[in-house]
Each structure stands twice: as structure tokens, then as C-alpha cells.
Amino acid sequence: MRSSPLKNIGFALLVCGLSCVGPLTVQAAVINGKVIFEGEVPAPKPLNFGAEKQCAVMHGDKMPVTEDLVVNPNQTVKWALVYIKEGAPASTAPTPGEAVEINQKGCMFEPHAVVARIGQKVIFRNSDPLLHNVRSESKVEKPFNIAQPLQDMTTAKTFAQPEIGIKMRCDVHFWMASYVHVLDHPFYAVTGDDGSFQIKDLPAGTYTIEVWHEKLGTQTAEITVAEGETKTSEFALRLS
Amino acid sequence: MRRLKICGILLVFLAVFSLAGCGERDLTKPPKIAYGRDFCVQCRMIIEEERFVSAAVTDDGHFLKFDDIGCLAVYEKDQNMSLIRSWVRDASGGGWIAREKALFVYSPDLVTPMGYGFVAFVSDLAAQEFAKEKTGRLVAWNELLNLTNQNQLKRED
Which ipTM value was assigned to this complex? Predict the structure, then answer.
């Protein structure tokens, strides 16, 4: 029995068509939300540069405020980390090639909080014409303390293990502090000027989400998302 | 009379404590470093990383602690101090080494606390391998003293 040429062509087209479409596309889930501040909002505290006049001069008449607790005008919290604490799928996403940068500028760390993936470069830059140092207060990795005596000096560091809330300090200027969070997956966000967060590209599943803030502590929530679903979650933090 | 007795007891206590203190200061051995608390005598930074630490003892019996081998070199050079002994850490984890027995590797790519880029080894093989890995080179102490004038703008582990 010989198959007809037409039949063969049809079969070939079907195979080709299927291979072009590929496996059925899976719709990723999204978790959106806000980190709200509960209670009486403390008045922003202007930074005290102490005797370091050179630092104050760099800000002119616009003195910055402390960033350890920033409550946005919409009563939300800035600089809070929201991340998948448990249930994060093993990520196939490669470690981002671009580095995360923390700048020592105007005797402050900018930005105040960053997230780096394991193995991703974190660059510390000194943009000031002053001596700064970067001392890590890591509890998982070996701490380091490096001087950055020259303007535009950069030091790149990588982290090998996940750790939340590694405090970075400059001992020359006691008020300078920032936080590096190291994660082994890409499911995280740091809240900004509107206190919102978005964690996207999640497969369907049940996750423990945690919000972490240096002054307001932590809070967790369990969230189940279906394929392609967008869920909203709110955290409310208060000073204890 | 009673006062004298109390004074006598206090003096005995003082003598015992000061003798006990002297017992701990064995100047032939490097001092203990309290990481995260002790300061480098040269740059005043808190000492954090064991592999770059160095120490010395002066001829008047004072222990000095440094966070970077370069800081020890600069101190020796600038202060013109007579250091009767000095030690560095073996970067392979072998503990303290007398400075004169150590092999030094210099690499501009090495991120050390003060950016001098020095690390010490007791083993020649370990020093050679590290130098190759970090595109560095072995340097003698005298050359190391001269190299402390350099500082890199861009450093990366």
C-alpha cells in the first residue's frame, strides 16, 4: 500500500504547523499590591550631618530627610521589600548581566535599598570628593569593609547566598546606611513613591509573600494564584 | 587600722589583676582580633576580613592591628616606628605567618579593605596559583612598600 503524495504533504504541513506553534503557552500570574502605613505618621527627620559641613554644602538649601522610614503622601511605605519567601519556582532566568549600583552621593547612599540576584554584581560608587567606606553587616556571607577614598571610585561585589536586609554603612559618616537584599529568584519588588509593588511572571501556585522593612519589621501572607490570574494583596505595617 | 586592712586587700587585688594582665600579653604571639569591633591603627576602619589582616608589636610593647597589609606597610614607612615583630594572615587559611616568612601577591584586581591589593601566603604554590588566577604577581616586601602609593579607581572581586 502506497500513501498518496497529497497525504504526505498534508502530514508534513501538520507537523510543521504544530512545531511552529510549539507547546501551549502558559499565562503567568501577577500579584499587585501596596504596603500601607498604619498609625500616626511621624514627621520626616532632616538628616543631621553633624560637623561634616562638606556634606551639608552639597545639598544647598534643600536638606534631605532620613530614609529609614519614608511614608508617602498616600500613607504608603517607601523602600519596603516584597518578595516570594516560600514556593518560588526554581528560576530558569539567568542572573542579570547588568549590575546593581549603589552610589555614595551627597553623603548618602542612593538608592536606599536594592535587590541583587545571587552572582549579580553590586557596584558601590563614590561620587563625592570625600572619603567614604562601605562596611557590610552581613550575617550569612563574610562581612567586608572597603574604603573608597577617591571620587568616582567603584568597587564591585557579588553575593553567593540569599540574605535579606544586609545593612551597608559608611563609618566615616555615621548616618549613611543602605540595604542590599540578595535573592535566588526574580520574584520581588521594592516599593517606591506610591508604595505599590508588582510581582509578575509567576506560574500558578501557592506562595508565601513577605514584606520586609528595616523599621517596621516583616509580615507574611499566603496567596494562591491560578494561571494568568492577577491578584491584589495589601500589607499594613505599623511602628511597634 | 581597718582602713589600712582595706587598702592592703585592694593593693593585693590590684597586684593580682595586673600580673594576670601581663600574663596575657605574650609579645611573641600575634594579638587576638575582634572582627567587627577592632579598628585598624592606620586607617581607623573597623577590621572585618580575616584574610587581609596584619598585626605588629612595637619595641615598647604595644600591639598594633591592621585591616589591610598595605596599612601595615604604610604605618611602618610613615611612622618610622620600630616594629619588633609583625604578622600577616595566610590567605589559604593557614593562620598567622611571621611577615618575613610570608610570600606576598599584588593584584590590582584584588578588592582589599584599603585597596592596596596585597595578600599573603605561606605556600609558594598557593601564592603562584593565586597570582595566576588574579593576574597578579609575587612581590618582595620592599617592592610592596613602594606599591602602597597606588590606588585603583575600579576594583572588582
Answer: 0.70
CA separation for the pair A87, A94 (Å, rounded): 19
Q: Answer whether B43 touches A (CB < 8 Å).
A: yes
Pick the more confident residue, B67 or B15: B67
Q: How confident is the model at residue A16 (pLDDT cuts 50, 70, 90)?
A: very low
Would you kindly state where each structural domain of chain A is located, as residue ranges? 25-238
Give DSSP secondary structure letters for B117-136.
Answer: -EEEES-HHHHHHHHHHTT-
Are the C-beta atoms of B151 and B145 separated by less than 8 Å? no
Chain B CB contacts of A135 under 8 Å are 45-46, 48
d(CA A84, CA A36): 18
Classify domain A25-238 at the CATH superfamily level. Answer: Cupredoxins -  blue copper proteins (2.60.40.420)
**B49, B154, B156 ranked by CB distance to A145: nearest:** B49
pLDDT in tens, A156-215: 999 999 999 999 999 999 999 999 999 999 999 999 999 999 999 999 999 999 999 999
Q: Which residues of chain A have a CB within 8 Å of the CB of B111?
A: 144, 146, 155-157
Q: Which CATH number, 3.30.450.410, 3.40.640.10, 3.40.50.11740, 3.40.50.410, labels domain B51-157?
A: 3.30.450.410
